[in-house]
Amino acid sequence: MSDDDRARNTWNLPPARAITVTENQWIPLEDGTRLAARLWMPEGALRAPVPAVLEYIPYRKRDLTRAIDDVWGAQLAQYGFAYARVDIRGTGDSEGVLLDEYLAQEQHDAAQVIAWLAGQPWSNGSVGMRGISWGGFSALQTAATAPPALKAALVFCASDNRFTDDAHYIGGALGFCNFSWGNVFHNVMIGPPDPAIVGDRWNEMWLQRLHSMRPVLANWLMHQHDDEFWQHGSTQKDYSQIKCPIYLVGGLHDTYNNAIPRLLEHLSVPRRAIIGPWAHTYPQFGVPGPGLDWVFEEVRWWDHWLNGRDTGIMHEPMLRVFMPEKTAAQSFPDDTPGRWIGEPKWPSSAISHFELSLNCDGLSAYPSERENVGYPADSLVGLCTREWLPSSMSEDLPLEQSPDDANSFTLDSQPLTHELEILGNPCVELCISSDSPVAQSAVRLSEVDTEGKSWLISYGLLNLTHRDGHEDPEPLSPGHFYDVTVKLNFVAHRFAKGNRIRIAISESLWPLVWPSPQPVRLTIAVGASTLTLPRRAIPKFEPPMPIPEIRNSHISAKAPLPAVSISGSGRDGRIVLRRQSENRRMIKDTGTEVASRIDWSREIKPGQPNSSRWHGTYATSYKRDGWNAEVSASFELTSTSSHFHLTESIRANQDGKVIFEQTWENNIPRDLL
Known about the structure:
The chain has 673 residues and is α+β, with helices and mostly antiparallel strands. The chain is 18% helix and 38% strand.
């Protein structure tokens, strides 16, 4: 019997139990601050203590995440695990203020929460930590502080590197995601606590948060390379600090998945990972599909590490990945065609380097004579690849790439004579020069079908002043050729026989990243540049996937989504991209109506990089009888060749009247950006 058969034949979900829910539980910290938690408890926990699973995030347990908290709380508690959903300090109903993301205070508080959970009379002393996005970062960072009671972590869609692989700087270039995410975050930081939980002091707590605010985006923009500010909380700095078992979960359309192979390779603790076809979401709600019946796998993980039962989970492949046979853009909203594959270890012995030379006449197995090819300085590329972290699959999946390819330097292979499967990070070694001391290089890898359509497989960006690392950038010497490596995002993909591989090179990728200070002409030395693909040997047998699939999981994508509009007829011939959405929902449990509004716009005049303008507003309101509070945060970014000009503002309304507003304006020097 194989290990997979043994696991499936010896472990099943335990019988479901009745549960109780505590709406609010105060958790005291050593400095007197109290954090607010919701608790889900399995019946009988006081008679027979159970493990606890912690989710620790700033997104308001009382309202914003209530629906999804109810899902995970019920699913975990019914199978014998207490689930604690805790608002971090200064958010939701927790006391104190929050001044930035991933501060040392946050990790210190988390260790105290874990100790509190382990010490309760219903607890068996073992605690697990789970979370997606912020919650995933928090779980990794807390694991690196090694609290004694933390026995395992489950990390969804998070990274070990805050500078390049979080929503800030993409390959050392300034991302729009830095501002869209920061706009949302600022809004979260200034949200009011709920009077039904904290009582009459809610207004005092709210004003304390508002008066403590700082210009968050300006602070991030002042740190334009990988300094100590970003290295704090980047667990990549020292993997040995993580002492507990780690389960990593990501999606092929989630840009945090680059951390997964690094963590698998460098951690020394028991570990495993799954990467599905979905974006920034849980496997259970996987879009693009197929998804996975995740409660089965999660309970199996916690049962193994928190209850000490051998569930078979650690006898399975270290890494499971969905291998698509087409891109999601070709098949959405239907599930992506493909299959699940397994790798016993990572790095995998099944992966080899498949090199193609970038030659003047295309991609080839052998280099041609060197020839220098110029790339024009006034091309606008990126409207077909516009979001770093897709949130709306119907709007954010990469479009067919031909329009961007037409404005790029493209090289195609001959039609493939065999199917080609890749798994890992492709990379391009470029011999390149610039006529400017500050420049970028964007590389896209596509599959060109027999009809000539170009479908994005992966891409990579590099601020060329960061060619030797992101800590100490150096300007380029105009006209000098440099050998640089552009690493593309982690990918799994099977190229079809008869299709072509395409590499497309451009100087930037707008509106994904802010353009260089002035128009840049790149020169690429073909015959001296190469593409390396992580070719996977296709085995005759793949280990079976023990987790049941959820097909047609794209149904959840039919909910109202942000509308994106693009126009090229704006003033002065500008390209204008705008995203707007409004969402209003009633939380029946609390009688609270929560409404949110997004209005983000990006515009540029092709060939004029300092005509770029990014602007955004995010607003949220909370209303019920006797309570009417609204907060909003806004930003605007423009630039000259030497400086960024950034305006940030926050505003709070109570009963329709402004009770607080603050605006910050900052001129920030461009530091080789």
